[in-house]
Amino acid sequence: MKDKLILITGGSSGIGLDLAKEYSREGCSIILLARNQTRLDDALMQCKDLMDHDTQEFYAFSADVDDQTQLQNVVNTIITDIGVPDILVLSAGIVQSATLMNQSEDEFSALLHTNVLGSRRVAKLFIPHMIEANQEKSDSNPQNKVMSCHRQICFVGSLGGLIPTYGYSGYGASKFAIVGLAGALRQELSQYDIGVSVLCPPEVDTPMVEKEADHILPQTRFIKDIGGTLDVEVVSRSAFKGILKNKFIIVPGVMAKLSYLQMRFMPGLFLWVMQKLVDLAERFVKKEDEKPVGHL
After folding, report:
1. How many other CB atoms sit within 10 Å of the CB of residue 195?
2. pTM for the structure as a whole
3. What is the pLDDT of residue 3?
4. Which of 31, 76, 99, 273 is most buried, by the most CB atoms less than 10 A from its CB?
């Protein structure tokens, strides 16, 4: 991995930042994209502190994945002044726990714009340059043309993009869309030696999840507590290994893997169990609501 160039959107915190730190330890050069420049600068310093050798380079660009013009300018600067990324990680995203009837059109639209359209927009801007760079590399060394993927794109999805979950009709829709997008793109880019992966973690201990805790639905919280919360380091290490192997679906954590496999091979039984958990959560919430004020 030494001397690879890694670009990560949403790289100022959470999974994006921890994965950037993982690549920094491996000797890669890092480019971080996020909206908040102050947090980006702090994230970049954390990556530099873990550098493996003194030829690694570190860059941070403030950009909103929803702003096509701003993003195009940043991509042009990166391609011209730095180079074409070897690995593109699309980690920028937002979350909201809300039932369909209680979620506004603007809130639903925001989830789709950031989680789906934002990731698609970044990928589409970089893919032509990745294809061209791969072609130049293949032409210079035709014997190794099909030995391995020269470049890789990893979308950060969610276990909620593989398993429907109460309260995530909007968030789940955006993450299910990411899995479909990534799967089709993987087929489209195979001929150009570009691999595509999608990371689908369960709940992860990140600032975004901490913020969600302020408004998460109790039924959603009940179901997610059964699966547990993973440390971000576990997720980033799993992502690192999965991307290296050009694995399509990357699911970190034992419980998450079991849930994914059950949903995939025994969907009827698994969804029946999920519904029973939702019913149990509903009864628990109702009982809590019926407690008199001041009840201990």
Report:
1. 22
2. 0.91
3. 85
4. 31
pLDDT in tens, 85-143: 999 999 999 999 999 999 999 999 999 999 999 999 999 999 999 999 998 876 666 55
Give residue 219's identity as a one-letter amino acid code. Answer: Q
Instruction: Return left, alpha or beta for 63; rule: phi > 0 is left, psi -120 to 50 is alpha, else beta.
Output: beta
Q: Do strands 151-156 and 249-250 pair parallel, antiparallel, or not at all (unpaired)?
A: unpaired
In tens, the pLDDT along 220-272 reads 998 888 888 999 999 999 999 999 999 999 999 999 999 999 999 999 999 99
> What is the predicted pLDDT for the residue at 63?
93
Give the pLDDT band of residue 296 (cuts 50, 70, 90).
very low
Phi, psi of 136 (to 5 degrees): -65, -40
Domain locations in the chain as residue ranges: 5-256
Question: Mind spelling out the 3-state secondary structure of the chain?
Answer: CCCCEEEEECCCCHHHHHHHHHHHHCCCEEEEEECCHHHHHHHHHHHHCCCCCCCCCEEEEECCCCCHHHHHHHHHHHHHHCCCCCEEEECCCCCCCECHHHCCHHHHHHHHHHHHHHHHHHHHHHHHHHHHHHHHHHHHCHHHCCCCCCEEEEEECCHHHCCCCCCEHHHHHHHHHHHHHHHHHHHHHHHHCEEEEEECCCCECCHHHHHHCCCCCHHHHHHHHHHCCECHHHHHHHHHHHHHCCCCEECCCHHHHHHHHHHHHCHHHHHHHHHHHHHHHHHHHHHHHHCCCCCC
